[in-house]
Design goal:
Layout: E1 2-12, E2 17-28, E3 33-37, H1 44-51, E4 59-64, E5 67-68, H2 74-84, E6 85-89, H3 100-110, H4 119-128, H5 144-156, E7 162-166, H6 174-191, E8 194-199, E9 210-215, E10 218-224
Parallel strand pairs: 3-8, 3-9, 6-7, 7-8
Antiparallel strand pairs: 1-2, 1-4, 4-5, 9-10
Helix pairs in contact: 3-5, 4-5, 5-6
């Protein structure tokens, strides 16, 4: 599904050039659940932005389903991103003044679907993440774990080809973190969702098929996991 080939990324200012991703090479198969681990400053966030079609300024080749998107216009790439990638963030990124239903519905409206056609899809997504009956609540009325489930439902709403979860358990307690990781595992096993979990938390590893470690912008380990 995804091939990163000889990827290098530099940040340049007037004084220096910072080499933040160094000769990154890896392949993501459809249906994989991968943990990308590394300490702060290792290049994880830069890699997320690149994988999610947000950052286009790099050298090397990014092939998605065998095709390069190098020459794609920003407007077209934005549409592709909305259809292809689901994002889940540490801070949930929900709109406080919108109901759960409205938060999950947003990507459908961005994609041009009329409000009359969204209800069944949204309720289906909420049911998939264990939030049936919560559609009229507001984020502040929910626990942290429930808010993250809303964010996951929103990320799934367009049936994306893959999910990128950036520290999805970072703001949650241990028990709730386990519930969210099990939800990701269930989505991966039952719905064959391709999931890239970016984290510094070793508790994530047992839920994944594969571990990629990154340090100082370089991959230092890429291994299959048992289980």
């Amino acid at each position: 599904m995804i091939d990163l080939v000889n990827i290098d990324k530099y940040y340049k200012n007037e004084e220096e050039s910072l080499h933040v991703l160094k000769d990154i090479n890896f392949h993501v198969k459809a249906g994989e659940m991968i943990a990308i681990m590394g300490p702060s400053g290792s290049g994880k966030s830069t890699l997320i932005n690149l994988l999610g079609f947000i950052d286009r300024k790099f050298s090397g080749n990014y092939l998605f389903e065998g095709k390069s998107l190098d020459s794609t216009s920003d407007e077209r790439l934005s549409k592709i991103r909305n259809q292809v990638v689901g994002f889940v963030f540490q801070n949930f990124s929900l709109i406080e003044n919108n109901t759960v239903f409205e938060n999950v519905e947003l990507p459908l409206l961005y994609g041009g679907l009329s409000p009359s056609k969204t209800k069944e899809i949204v309720l289906g997504a909420l049911s998939r993440v264990g939030l049936k009956g919560k559609e009229k609540k507001y984020p502040k009325q929910l626990s942290g774990g429930q808010q993250q489930r809303v964010a996951i439902a929103r990320s799934l709403i367009n049936n994306p080809k893959f999910l990128i979860a950036d520290e999805p358990t970072g703001a949650l307690d241990t028990h709730t973190s386990e519930e969210i990781l099990q939800l990701f595992k269930d989505l991966n096993e039952k719905d064959h969702a391709t999931i890239i979990l970016v984290t510094h938390d070793p508790e994530v590893i047992p839920y994944c098929h594969r571990l990629i470690r990154i340090r100082d912008g370089a991959i230092i380990e890429d291994k299959e996991l048992d289980g």
